[in-house]
Specification:
Order of helices and strands: EHEHEHEHEHEHHHHHH
Strand content: 5-15%
Low-confidence stretches: none
Helix content: 40-55%
Number of helices: 11
Oligomer: single chain
Radius of gyration: 18 Å
Largest sheet: 6 strands, parallel
Length: 221
């Protein structure tokens, strides 16, 4: 008898009911995903995670009462196993940088195409980090172009510590490639990619993939 793979349990958090409805319709189109709850603000999101123990949370940033970043921080402090994907319009979301330090596992625009959204949820649930290419560009531009942050020499020094294979993987991360894509392009296993990424994070003294990407882009300035 074939083993049944558990569905990815997801909580949707957005203060607009229409957005939540749209996300639910998209994600429930995949039989591998189950929407276990919805929340209209950060406080409700915290309670929902406590009650439902989801695998993934899709978290809006700007909400009344308790915003998404505050909720992300509180959730991950108590439940570091929960994987949070930040949803943003990114027109004025300068505070998204805070989520990098908190451990968010993905950044997506709200107008992400349906199949990409489904793939992102499944990838994050499997342990990957998902970064919309447009969000990467915005994040990197915001950091690299900030006055007083000419860090090219420092970035080059850090990247010089990497082996050629680690540098290939860092460059791929800067392009927004997933672990699976990197593995396929470099003809290695996903497990090997993850091991390399762990060493890259240690050598660069950074916490996540976006910070790897920022370092690479600093060096290219």
């Amino acid at each position: 008898m074939a083993e049944v793979t558990p569905r990815v349990r997801v909580v949707l958090v957005d203060d607009e009911s229409l957005v939540r409805t749209g996300l639910r319709l998209i994600l429930e189109g995949d039989p591998a995903i189950e929407i276990v709850d919805q929340a209209a603000d950060g406080a409700a999101a915290i309670a929902s995670v406590e009650n439902t123990a989801p695998d993934v949370v899709l978290m809006d940033v700007r909400m009344p009462h308790v915003d998404g970043l505050t909720a992300t921080e509180r959730i991950l402090a108590d439940r570091p196993d929960v994987k949070i994907i930040v949803l943003t319009t990114f027109d004025t979301d300068e505070f998204v940088h805070r989520a990098l330090r908190m451990g968010a596992r993905g950044f997506l625009l709200k107008d992400t195409p349906p199949q990409e959204l489904i793939d992102a949820v499944r990838r994050v649930a499997a342990g990957d980090t998902v970064l919309s290419q447009s969000v990467i560009g915005q994040l990197i531009t915001a950091v690299v172009d900030r006055p007083g942050h000419d860090l090219r020499a420092s970035a080059e020094e850090k990247l010089a510590q990497l082996t050629p294979r680690e540098r290939d993987i860092a460059d791929a991360i800067a392009l927004g490639s997933s672990n699976t894509e990197i593995a396929a392009n470099l003809f290695i296993s996903v497990t090997t990619v993850k091991s390399h990424i762990g060493r890259i994070l240690d050598k660069l003294a950074v916490a996540n993939r976006v910070q790897i990407a920022v370092c690479v882009h600093h060096a290219r300035r």
